[in-house]
Amino acid sequence: MIEIDEKDLIRCPVCNAVNINKGKNNICRRCQSSIYKHTKFRTEKSWAYLITAMIAYIPANLYPMLITSQFGHQEGSTILGGVILLWEHGSYPIAMVIFFASIMIPILKFMILIYLLISVKYPLGKDKKINKHKLFYLTELIGPWSMIDVFVVAILAGLIHMANIQILAGTASTAFALSVFFTLLSAHAFDEQLIQEHNRG
Amino acid sequence: MHIENEDDLDKIVICPKCFTLHQETPIQDGTKALCTQCGSILYRYDSNLAKNGLALSITALIFLILANMFPIVSIDILGHEQYLNITKTFLTLFDNGFFIVGFFVMFLIFVFPFLITILYIILFALLYFKVGEHISKNILVLISHIEPWSMAEIFLVSILVALVKLIGYAQIHMGVSFWALIAYVIFDIYITRSIKISEIWMLRSRVYNK
Asked: Can you say whether the dihedral through the CA atoms of A201, B1, B3, B9 is positive or negative?
């Protein structure tokens, strides 16, 4: 017979098994993965990935994402420039999709992760009106969709390469892909247990 | 809360969305248990899960192979015929010197979808024939790590976005692989999202404890 506190129950991030929080070095009893090994550096890893992602997001918006080369004349378009161009041409749904995937989702994800990382350490997020678990679940769900723009560039570059007209990927595609990659890593590195511990007091 | 030993924790389920604690209760075959707080699915009970899963994942692999064999789309631009298939998407990026993006695209739409589908086939086969207790555990852990990085469905949406951009400039013909990719994505979403990984862990404990 073991007496446990309901609040000491934690979930293994790999296999979702319920485990008892034994302080440090929790090993999942079902899949033997270690659950949040670090006791000192709990948010730092997530912060580091997040800052890297935000730095990569700057060149992703400044450099051209797509370079159209027509009869030797090269023209680049940035993410925002591409969205504006699509809007002016009247393809509103596609302009919206690109706008959401490439601008809204990354910025939203940065903001949610910054909020979560700050709120689990400082009394800012004491109010329990916002369910932080749901917020975190949402970031994990929408995160990968910002890869759309990178794939579109890859598809167009693969499809259109003739002698006269050619579409090439731009510098921003590398920066953008890296930004998405590090945002995903940051979300994965976030310790969900912190939300629980913070809510407790 | 009192429990007999740590294995009793298997009877407790935490909602994947809102983190509410639930006590697992036996449910009827083919039904599902919902979270009382947010209504998301906690687990389902399907007595034929291993058999169905094996059939579905083999079908998914067949469609994935088809999706890689033929052109996804071909366009007619100023009298030039151009086509695209999945491997060409990242090989062009390599040709143009975009190695980082090329590697990302290669892993996200080619390597990981293949890997995850094959891993699911092996996993369901092991569970169906009730062998390989240790291997199935390692495969499940591996699947949990790889799954977020398999982005075939996002690639499918990207194809549609890219084609809408080309409307007016070129004539577009859909290839066989496009339809195969749609079929693969439907099966993939069913296997990886609809069948929860915790359901497979539950199945695993039922299979090997008998």
From this structure: negative
